[in-house]
Amino acid sequence: MAFAYATRSSKGSRSYQEDAAQVRADGQGPEASRLTAVLADGMGGHAGGALASATACQIFLGAYEASSGDVPARLVEALSLANAAIAECVEENPALSGMGCTLVGAAFSPAGVEWVSVGDSPLFLVRRGEIVLLNEDHSLAPEIDKLAAAGRMSWEDAKADPRRHFLRSALTGSEIDMIDRSHRPLALEPGDVVILASDGIHALDHGDILRVTQAHCGPGPDAVADGLLAAVEAVGDLNQDNTTVVVVQVTG
Fold this sequence. Notes:
By secondary structure, the chain is an alpha+beta fold. The protein contains six helices and eleven strands.
């Protein structure tokens, strides 16, 4: 089994970039038999958000590579050390108090994909004409949707509710309220596409993401990543958030 990957970012309508993403793979070619990907979406203002996301990604990858043992434990340990690094940044510069980020990290191997995540940065699997969200959404959006499903508010009001993007869990240097993690590898198949994304991707619904991925997966992950950002831009949202994607395609 081999993996090809691509990373793309867009500022959207913002004048700054608070997203960060990194990928480390074995080998130097266009494909790898193992790789680790991490994506973080910063919060706390331009300087704070950008520092939080960049720090979290760097520490997460370094900690994961330096550790040993089973993958789920390594992912959680890397997450914890990334959170601690944010606490150290705030301790060194109290003006950064309130900064933080979401994080989704995924480890790919011949056994499949395993992950850990905090916040609302989604992890998607596209397979054989279907799309599945693999990780939990730690924003208020799922709770608001439950109210709509129970008839306590309309779906129109639910989708327009400004609280949808409020986070119930994030890396801020304090205790992490909610962590989503896989407990065993999810087996992958040739042709599968796994997408890590910041919440700017929510300009597209799941059907849009599926359509774009299917339309561009033939040429490879670079085309998928470019297609996703082009689709977000085409929506024309005047308040479009930063959007970052890491696209990993199973090639064989």
